[in-house]
Structures are given as structure tokens and as C-alpha cells.
Amino acid sequence: MLSGAQVRFEINDAHVKGKRLAGVRVLAAAAAGGEPVAFAETDQDGVAILDLEPATYWISYLRPGYVPVRGSETEIRADGQVITTTLSMLLEAEGGAPGRRVRLVLNWGSDSEDARDVDGHATCACGQANARVSYRAMRHEYEGHVLELDVDDMDWGGPETITFTDPPPGAYSYLVHQYSQDRDTLGRSDLVVRVFFDDQLAAEIRAPESIARYWRPFKQLVVGPDLVPRLVPFDVDELAAGADREPPAELLSEASSSTAWKTCGCVVVVLLAISWAVVVMRVRRRRARSAPTR
């Protein structure tokens, strides 16, 4: 292995919250398609440590029963860096009723300077009222299809997993939103979305550093009349106009209310804490006044 930064890789499951994956082979290549220059296997805690010089590497994650992630372009910056990667189980291994599956898996950084809580929002193409999912409404089901937020991670790293089962034809929207109110650090938080079509990794999209609080990694997910899914990217002009940084109309109120709800919740907690402190002070004063004097 190369001497340099010790990098911690934490590997977990896309469908089961908190499930760390042992036995994942983590291989780092210095060039796309190149031979590994370092490799390790995750322990029972889902952790593998690699010694890597700061540089860009192409990392592969391989485990039986899971969709392989190959050649994920990753920047290694410093000693102690933590990289969280989520793997999606193969359809047959996951069990349940057979069907078509689209899965969106969001990971981000685990450093204290990164965004702490990042949310995924998605709409369904079925046209029903409130046909969307987020942390506030985690499951939508109608006429044989399901849209579900499987895992909602609230403290760095991810995953934030949304799964479409037997999605009907039409266009779907997806939005990433920084929920935590610390700083606008979304684009500097090593944000990556992986899109899985059944048992294939269809796309891996990383957020630009200039992203603030909202990000759309693609314009739409479209399921055709033949039931085949595809991603529709933003064109150059749309990206230049910042279309990937604006919530789509169908998700604007949802994302805005999330921020408002978070702010309101924090205010309520602070007010309750102040009220409790006032009560405690009054009780102490009464006890002091009623205490016998010598």
C-alpha cells in the first residue's frame, strides 16, 4: 500500500437503516479502469481503512448479493477523511414480490464541516394528490406502484434512499435539500447521488461545490410507455441559468415548509428551555425565602 493519508470507508445498506456491511471489498485505482493500488475488506462494523496519498482515485465497492459500484471517482484530501458509501441489494437477494425497481441513493460527507442533515424529495408521475415522498410522508402507494423513502439519515454520511417499485409511465422529479440550518455547505459536502435501475448502477452524479441549499442532480426521471426508465439531464443553457439549484414547482412548497418546520421546531425547543429555566429559578427563590433563618 502507499503511505499517506489513512482514509476510513464506511459501507452500509440502502434499504435497511443502520445496517453496516461486512465483507465489502474496497479497491482504489489511480486511473479510470486501472489496477488497484490499494485495497481492503470491511470488518464487522462495515469499516475499511486504506492508506492513500492525497489525490483523485477511482474506488470500487464489491460484495456478493449487492449491485457493484465500480470506478467511483473520489478525491482524497487528508488524513482521517471518512467516506460513506451505500450499496443496493440485488433484487433477488432482497426478496419480496418481483417487479421493476428504480432506486436513488444519496450519500454525503461525514466531517463536522459538512452538512449534517440532507433530505431527498421525490414526486410520482401518477397524478394523484400529494403523490410525493420525503421525511414528512415516507410512502406513496397507488394502483400497484409504490414510491418510498426507505432510509432517512439525519446525522452525516447517509444514506437517504428513495425506491420506486413498478413506477408507471411519466416524469418524476427529485430534489436534494440541506435540512440542517448550520451553514449552506451542501456543495462542499461531497454529495453524490447514485441511480440504480433494477440490478444496474445507471448513473453516479456529484454535486458542484457552488451548490448552496438545493440541488437537482438531473432534470427528470422518465419512465417510457415501454416501462423503461431513463434520466433526462439539464442542458448547458439550463445549467448556466442555475436550473439545477432551484426546486421544481411541484416540490417547492414541500422543501420550503421543511425549512420553516425546522426553524419553528428549533424556536419551540428554545422557548420551552427558557420557560423551564424560569420555573426552576422561581422554585429555588421560593425555597430560599421559606428556609428558616438562624
The strand line-up of the biggest sheet is: 11-12-13-8-16-17
Described by the principal axes of the CA atoms, the overall outline is: globular
Going by CATH, what is the homologous superfamily of the largest domain? Answer: sav2460 like domains
SS element count, helices: 3
Mean pLDDT: 87
Which spans of ≥5 residues are poorly predicted at pLDDT below 50?
Answer: 266-270
What would you say this structure looks like, in words?
- The chain has 294 residues and is an alpha+beta fold.
- The chain contains 3 helices and 20 strands.
- A hairpin with a 7-residue loop joins strand 12 (145-152) and strand 13.
- The radius of gyration is 23 Å and the shape is globular.
- The termini are far apart.
What is this structure, in a nutshell?
This protein has 294 residues and is of the alpha+beta class. The protein has helices at residues 91-94, 236-240, 249-290; strands at residues 5-13, 25-29, 36-41, 47-52, 55-62, 69-76, 82-87, 101-107, 118-123, 132-133, 139-142, 145-152, 160-165, 170-172, 174-178, 192-197, 200-206, 214-215, 220-223, 229-232.
Key attributes of the depicted protein:
alpha+beta, four-stranded antiparallel beta sheet, 17% helix, Immunoglobulin-like, globular, 2 domains, six-stranded antiparallel beta sheet, 294 residues, single chain, Lipoxygenase-1
Topology:
Blueprint: E1 5-13, E2 25-29, E3 36-41, E4 47-52, E5 55-62, E6 69-76, E7 82-87, H1 91-94, E8 101-107, E9 118-123, E10 132-133, E11 139-142, E12 145-152, E13 160-165, E14 170-172, E15 174-178, E16 192-197, E17 200-206, E18 214-215, E19 220-223, E20 229-232, H2 236-240, H3 249-290
Parallel strand pairs: 1-7
Antiparallel strand pairs: 1-4, 2-3, 2-5, 5-6, 8-13, 8-16, 9-10, 9-15, 11-12, 12-13, 14-19, 15-18, 16-17, 19-20
